[in-house]
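To illustrate the input format used throughout this study, we show a single complete record. The first block contains the structure-token representation of the backbone; no residue identities are included at this stage. The design step must infer an amino acid for every position from geometry alone.
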């Protein structure tokens, strides 16, 4: 893409930082849409929007247009559809490399068109989604809503009958009976809330007053600076280190495949040691940071590149899986959804600045023997630091609990 657009690495890499940034930042909106319309229509709509973004990119080769179509539209759609995992990284890295580099008759622009149609395959997944059965608590809530609605309809009918007979009596009944109705105020108000007010509810910045959660957000920002660097610059790094061109695709493929295993295996381990999930999360984050630092030291050996990529993919995938349960332990189950919205928002800011900075540093150090060395060391260190500072969370949580108890008294 750099050669096609004839631009610097920093300018081009901004496309691939805007996309994941919007994917993260759009999380609260996706949550509201799912609550309003359900998973199936949201997944289908997100897939269509993502495909549209790449389809439009085919018709105009312009960096600013790509920022909108691939970065903003593609990132927004990915966040809405809540899609994109290690499977996509594993498969599409090989497919797109073949389309762009080996099947030259397709051309770069037509490759974007092919990718737009590949994304449309997600429609099948969206239409295949079925609502999960309601849990007992959800069934009780639905029953309460049904009873409240029945009472409201019963009263409305009563008032109509009373007004038809004696208007004054109808007014009296209305004044007396209406306050006695067992209406759930919170539920009634929630149905009347606008779309934007619901989004505001999903992003409650007051949670940052919780010191443990604020530290968790800082950790997430530091990790976000480093995590996307490896995916976005793996091929450039291999090129600088003289890895054979035909073998470079295996680096990202190994990252995606190991990411799948990391999510499954470390997620299963978390279930076996629930009391130590914070420490497990810290370990996975620190090892991911070490893998980032080691990456520029792998030379031209494809085996070493696959080793660092697999290590990073495995442990970063585990970190992603562990993030939500650790967050729930920090803020509590009741505030977990809102806290995740705040976390995603700040994580998006980290992603959007991290990748372009690394690209700019790579261009600035182009005269050095290893232009990517310092960028990877700095951002890998940020990832390691993001894990280390989490050791302070158990020290902060007792203070938060004491403050909450005092406020309740």
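Output of the design step:
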């Amino acid at each position: 893409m750099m050669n096609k657009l004839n631009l610097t690495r920093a300018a081009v890499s901004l496309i691939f930082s805007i996309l994941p940034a919007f994917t993260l930042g759009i999380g609260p909106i996706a949550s509201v849409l799912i609550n309003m319309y359900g998973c199936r229509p949201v997944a289908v709509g997100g897939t269509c929007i993502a495909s549209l973004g790449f389809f439009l990119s085919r018709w105009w080769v312009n960096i600013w247009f790509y920022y909108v179509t691939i970065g903003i539209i593609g990132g927004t759609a990915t966040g809405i559809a809540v899609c994109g995992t290690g499977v996509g990284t594993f498969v599409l890295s090989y497919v797109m490399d073949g389309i762009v580099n080996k099947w030259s008759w397709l051309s770069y622009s037509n490759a974007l068109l092919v990718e737009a149609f590949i994304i449309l395959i997600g429609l099948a997944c969206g239409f295949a989604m079925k609502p999960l059965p309601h849990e007992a608590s959800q069934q009780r809530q639905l029953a309460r809503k049904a009873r409240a609605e029945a009472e409201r309809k019963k009263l409305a009918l009563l008032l109509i009958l009373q007004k038809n007979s004696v208007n004054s009596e109808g007014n009296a009944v209305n004044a007396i009976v209406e306050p006695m109705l067992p209406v759930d105020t919170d539920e009634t108000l929630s149905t009347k809330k606008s779309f934007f007010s619901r989004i505001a509810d999903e992003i409650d910045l007051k949670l940052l007053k919780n010191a443990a959660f604020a530290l968790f957000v800082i950790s997430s920002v530091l990790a976000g600076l480093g995590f996307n660097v490896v995916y976005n610059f793996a091929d450039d790094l291999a090129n600088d280190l003289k890895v054979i061109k035909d073998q470079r695709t295996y680096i990202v493929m190994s990252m995606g495949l190991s990411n799948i295993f990391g999510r499954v295996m470390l997620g299963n381990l978390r279930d076996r040691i629930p009391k130590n999930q914070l420490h497990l999360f810290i370990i996975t984050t620190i090892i991911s940071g070490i893998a980032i630092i080691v990456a520029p030291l792998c030379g031209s050996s494809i085996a070493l590149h696959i080793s660092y990529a697999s290590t990073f993919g495995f442990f970063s995938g585990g970190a992603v899986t562990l993030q939500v349960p650790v967050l729930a332990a920090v803020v509590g189950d009741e505030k977990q959804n809102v806290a995740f919205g705040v976390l995603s928002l700040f994580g998006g800011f980290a992603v959007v600045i991290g990748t372009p900075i690394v690209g700019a540093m790579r261009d600035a150090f182009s005269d050095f023997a290893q232009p990517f060395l310092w960028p990877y060391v700095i951002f890998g260190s940020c990832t390691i630091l993001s894990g280390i500072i989490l050791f302070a969370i158990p020290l902060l949580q007792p203070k938060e609990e004491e403050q909450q108890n005092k406020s309740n008294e």
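Structural context for interpreting the output: The first helix runs from residue 2 to 5. Residues 222 and 382 are 5 Å apart (CA to CA).
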